[in-house]
Amino acid sequence: HDVGFQLSFVxxxxxxxxxxxxxxxxxxxxxxxxxxxxxLSSLTAIIFTLPILLWHFGQVSLIAPFVNALILPFxxxxxxxxxxxxxxxxxxxxxxFVIATAVMGLSYALLRVIAVFSxxxxxxxxxxxxKFFAVVLAILLIGWMILYxxxxxxxxx
Length: 157
Fold this sequence. Notes:
Structural class: mainly alpha
Low-confidence stretches: 153-157
Mean pLDDT: 87
Largest sheet: 2 strands, antiparallel
Strand order of the largest sheet: 1-2
Number of helices: 6
Distance between the termini: 40 Å
């Protein structure tokens, strides 16, 4: 019943199993600065978590793909800084604190970007009959995965 777990599990599963297939099919599309990868991974996670979002919240974010593509390139850097901060804080507290300040600053900047975009009046829309559309979309996604999975297995054999 934990919505956060459901969203995390489905997004991670989609990124592990579906994203590589989609990215492989779109290798011919240029990938300057990793933009294609950021947009595709964001769209994959959004599409596959959409049934859960519709079921529990009844609305769809219209700006999520854009904002995710905007902030996603900074996440690995933020995570690396956080790991460095943890290690340094054990070895040298003062230097760990300095790195922690950078982590907090970058986190704050990313959260401000999210807050600014989410405050836009067209950021999300309420969906009529959200549970109906959640079920239909889930069935379509599962059907697509079954069809695509059976086709890809047949081409491999």
